[in-house]
């Protein structure tokens, strides 16, 4: 098993489901709180980390939005993103597609320019330093109104050349994709590709809506598709990727235990499954940690691991030439690993 873990860690990979606000480690949260003279309601880093014990998505989101309150200027967003990208480089990530939640920050008075500017500065640095390419995805908060999402899209208009796509996240139950039909139609008119969180806590019907009403090209989570065989067949036939986040699903009690997760079954069923970290600072690990936990709990094979790494690139928004180059790199690292066995 340790050989398979070494293979998974060494393979070049992409991460396609990462909320940059969810990469805020307690150490940085305290550092930024001190910088801005903000008092966090926890004695120290250990006390904050100990609070990362969730019953469901909402109990996590309450802490996640409170934590994001220490992000106040462009340098904060830069420090946050830079720290994530250092972890990404250590995990052999070669490409990242990152969500940011502008509404969490603009409603506190942080200008859109500072949010995007700070994140982008770190992304460009990591591209130069580590060769990590990137896409930036603006995500709308589904617990807020569609009018609020439309206003956010309007505010983002001067920066649309910096945004590669749009997503939908936050509290899922009671906030179906259909609530956002008009804003996503506008996004598509602006040429922005769409992804959406669906079927994390919400029912399979939300995945159908994300596909048919929002015209999502990729589904974030999507694990509840298993409850609807027709939906699983559609995801397979149309090769619509699912960005699965195993440690997140256990932390938020979507699954009681990783051993019960359906990702291996879906992968063997021919779906384009990818492994991602979601909110790594809160859920106990980055991409390699997710691979390691899945290898242990689900007994993933060599073929599974290589397929998951391949899927991370095929499901990305890289162009065909870049995909081909990275898939060839996977083959090279895999061959090297085989020779060493
Ligand atoms: N925002 C950050 N993480 C999320 C998740 N797992 N589901 C929905 N919204 C989120
Ligand atoms: Zn997510």
From TrEMBL:
Active site: 200 (proton donor)
Names of the cofactor(s): Zn(2+)
Pfam (any one): A_deaminase
Keywords: Hydrolase, Metal-binding, Nucleotide metabolism, Zinc
One annotated Gene Ontology cellular component of this protein: cytosol
EC assignment: 3.5.4.2
Site (Important for catalytic activity): 221
UniProt keyword Cell membrane, yes or no: no
Annotated residues for binding of Zn(2+): 17, 19, 197, 278
Domain Adenosine deaminase: from-to ranges: 12-332
Swiss-Prot/TrEMBL GO biological process terms: adenine catabolic process; hypoxanthine salvage; nucleotide metabolic process
Residues engaged in binding substrate: 279
Entry's family note: Belongs to the metallo-dependent hydrolases superfamily. Adenosine and AMP deaminases family. Adenine deaminase type 2 subfamily.
Functional summary from the UniProt entry: Catalyzes the hydrolytic deamination of adenine to hypoxanthine. Plays an important role in the purine salvage pathway and in nitrogen catabolism.
Protein name: Adenine deaminase
Species for this entry: Amantichitinum ursilacus
Lineage start: Bacteria, Pseudomonadati, Pseudomonadota, Betaproteobacteria, Neisseriales
